[in-house]
Design goal:
Layout lengths: L12 H26 L8 H21 L5 H25 L12 H24 L6 H38 L4 H6 L2 H21 L1 H16 L2 H18 L2 H5 L3 H20 L10 H32 L3 H25 L8 H19 L6 H14 L10 H6 L2 H12 L7 H13 L11 H5 L2 E3 L30 E6 L8 E6 L2 E8 L2 E8 L7 H6 L3 E3 L9 E3 L2 E3 L1 E3 L27
Parallel strand pairs: 1-2
Antiparallel strand pairs: 2-3, 3-4, 4-5, 5-9, 6-7, 7-8
Helix pairs in contact: 1-2, 1-7, 2-3, 2-4, 3-4, 4-5, 4-14, 5-7, 5-8, 8-11, 9-11, 9-12, 11-12, 11-13, 12-13, 13-14, 13-15, 15-17, 17-18
Length: 602
């Protein structure tokens, strides 16, 4: 959010004092806000107000830090006022759609903070360039110089603060060695940590402003190194596109993350191409190798973005909108502008890739507009996702049994909760009773994962017994603690697989639950089911298909528990209380709990 120095005189001592004072005041304000929240005082004010204050304290001081000495006083006042209104408005709106019972409901979420920082950085440099040149759209050279230089300044400031904390922690550890505990304890206190971080960040911003020529030197080195990565990435991208007709698109879709990877590759190409282009073609810039790499890059970005857009459209058509997919649509929109502009610049007559400059300026304005839309009522991802998912349920695109009610409960904020309450109160329409029952059950949940559902009917839909068998009596009906529930990682519409077989030779069956890599073995003792072990061996993607096809068997000679053979692979049961050689009990086997994606929004 900075604009570098103009042709004014070197920064004066008053500017340095002002910047340090702003940083210190920001730290004190953040500490006060943190204490307000920690002590529960924030419960006495509406969440939108608290979140608006947090956004103001986070961003307004940084904008002022960057605007001092680089913007005219009048421009800085107006731009600061606009920034305050926008960030406070975004924070207040975020507070109105926060999940009501979330423990961090008052604080702005990470997406809002990250994307607001990106949007402000871009907008600040659009304003600063226009202010310096006294026109609405500045020259591309001005934008390039200020944006890349201030990006380096921000990176150096972050590294400076990181180095500060490494030294502080090291100092605390040294004093701790000789029994002086108060130094380390003081460093860890919020009243010290917040002001120290923001004050030294402000100091770093000022120091990099004073040494602007050194910053430019670092920027030049960084751009040179990045530019020579462009041929490497261009070859990779071109090779991928050449190989794609021979491999087909099905392998891409099987990854379930093709659009994100393709857009990331396109973003990398865009950054590297700009690093090579810099301020355009000059007498000794760029070398011929980079010119040709730039032309290839300008062409291959378009098909990468087109394939990503196609994959995203297919996914939305299959499973509807989710917040992540809406972010993906926004990224794709921006990527399309870059792709079209860069492809045109390759074939446009004149200097090398000259039309790239126009594309970058247009894309910068579009990014700011898109981010404002995403985090305002215009295109709020939670609201759009909820409306689309409920519409899919209403028109029968997804059945009531497979609809992801927990998405509305835990991942869609207040719009999701409001929609879920409306579904729970539904009395008319197709499947109204079933929808209301499932929505009511979802409203009663306290956590998306790790909590057993209360309905046995619903729990039956979370597990499929291999070979067409049935679960033993009491297994589903038993009341489990949340962390012991064998079905905690299972989802309606994507049930876990289970094997029911006698593994210990006592004629009573045991149950093995295959839950996304978590394969637990359960036995009933005195009417109570409990976990007794886990299956060894790697979890293979084809295990589920093999179990559904009945391709499993049990070793007939338990020692002490029989092995389970799935698709020809022998999986040994590892008891939770294996004995060590000295006869003592070993550690309980630990199996990671993998959270599966929602069934109809994955």
């Amino acid at each position: 959010m900075f604009a570098g120095e103009t042709d004014q005189v070197a920064p004066s001592r008053p500017i340095a004092i002002a910047r340090v004072a702003i940083g210190f005041a920001q730290g004190l304000a953040l500490y006060g806000l943190n204490e307000w929240e920690k002590r529960g005082l924030a419960e006495n004010i509406p969440s939108p107000l608290f979140c608006a204050c947090a956004m103001l304290i986070l961003f307004l001081p940084v904008v002022v830090l960057g605007g001092l000495r680089t913007l005219r006083t009048r421009t800085l006042i107006v731009w600061g006022a606009v920034t305050a209104i926008v960030v406070a408005g975004l924070g207040a709106y975020h507070g109105t759609i926060a999940i009501p019972d979330a423990s961090t409901e008052h604080w702005p979420g990470p997406p809002l903070v990250i994307f607001t920082a990106i949007g402000l950085f871009i907008a600040h440099h659009l304003v600063a360039g226009a202010d310096v040149e006294r026109r609405w759209i500045a020259g591309y050279g001005r934008y390039f110089d200020q944006t890349w230089k201030d990006g380096v300044r921000l990176a150096l400031a972050v590294l400076f603060v990181g180095a500060l904390w490494l030294l502080l922690w090291l100092g605390g550890a040294l004093f701790d060695l000789i029994g002086v505990k108060w130094v380390g304890e003081t460093i860890s206190k919020p009243w010290f940590a917040f002001p120290a971080t923001t004050t030294f960040f402000a100091l770093a911003i000022h120091l990099t402003d004073v040494r602007a020529s050194l910053v430019r030197g670092i920027r030049t080195v960084a751009l040179t190194l990045l530019s020579w990565l462009l041929p490497v990435m261009a070859v990779i991208g071109a090779g991928f596109l050449i190989a794609l007709p021979f491999t087909g698109l099905s392998l891409l879709w099987d990854t379930k993350s093709a659009a994100g990877i393709l857009l990331s590759a396109a973003a990398a190409l865009i950054v590297l191409l700009n690093a090579a282009y810099q301020e355009g073609e000059a007498e000794d810039h760029p070398p011929v190798a980079l010119k040709w790499a730039g032309r290839v890059t300008g062409v291959i970005i378009a098909p990468l973005v087109a394939i990503a857009a196609y994959g995203l459209a297919l996914r939305i058509g299959q499973y509807g909108l989710t917040p992540d997919r809406i972010y993906g649509v926004a990224c794709t929109l921006v990527a399309v502008i870059y792709a079209a502009g860069y492809a045109a610049s390759v074939f446009w007559p004149g200097p090398w890739l000259k039309r790239l400059e126009v594309t970058n300026v247009i894309a910068a304005h579009v990014v700011v507009a898109v981010l404002l839309a995403l985090f305002s009522p215009i295109a709020n991802p939670s609201r759009l996702s909820v409306n689309d998912q409920v519409a899919r349920l209403d028109r029968g695109a997804v059945t009531p049994a497979k609809f992801d009610y927990l998405f509305l409960r835990f991942e869609a904020g207040k719009p999701g909760m409001d929609a879920l309450k409306a579904l729970a109160a539904r009395k008319t329409g197709p499947h109204a009773a079933e929808i209301a029952r499932r929505a009511t059950s979802a409203l009663a949940r306290k956590a998306r994962y790790g909590e057993a559902t209360t309905s046995v009917v619903e729990r039956k839909e979370l597990v499929a017994v291999a070979g067409g068998g049935v679960l033993p009596p009491g297994f589903l009906e038993q009341t489990w603690k949340s962390f012991e529930d064998p079905l905690q990682n299972c989802e309606t519409g994507r049930p876990c697989d289970a094997v029911v077989a006698d593994l210990d030779g006592d004629t009573a069956p045991e149950v093995v639950v295959f839950a996304m890599g978590d394969r637990r073995v359960y036995r009933q003792d005195k009417g109570v089911w409990a976990r007794i072990g886990t299956l060894s061996g790697s979890y293979c993607d084809k295990d589920g298909a093999a179990l559904k096809a009945g391709q499993f068997a049990v070793n007939a000679d338990p020692k002490p528990l029989a092995d389970v053979v799935v698709a020809g692979r022998r999986l040994r049961v590892v008891p939770d209380t294996d004995k060590c050689p000295d006869g003592t009990a070993g550690d309980v086997a630990v199996v990671s709990e993998i959270k599966p994606p929602p069934p109809e929004t994955r």
